[in-house]
Specification:
- The protein has about 120 residues and is of the alpha+beta class.
- The chain is built from three helices and three strands.
- The protein has one domain (about 1-110).
- The radius of gyration is 17 Å and the shape is elongated.
- About 20% of the residues are buried.
Length: about 120
Amino acid sequence: MFLLLLLFSAHVLLNLWLRSSIDSVAFDAATAVATSGVGPEQLPQVQQQALTRAHEALGGYSAEVTLEFETSQPDEVALRVAAPGINLLPPLVASAAGLSGFEHRIVMPREEAPA
């Protein structure tokens, strides 16, 4: 019983650390684009630079993480983030505990280009 609790605890802690790390990198990328102040014609280049920095920050795990800027309102930045979890538990147990991965959107208002 002790080993099962230890395995479950390790699974929870590793997945919380992973989620926090990915959220931090994704939030930094979305913030960089939202505060860039560039016009619509330069926005794709700034988004690509932010994604490149995010993938570099994630290191080897970046192949597992999906980061995509969505076309949304012109006055906001939306970044979709999806990543699998670290599986120390059987998939059925991990999904029942809600720790099998995550997917969400980060949305923030864009700053306007300086006049």
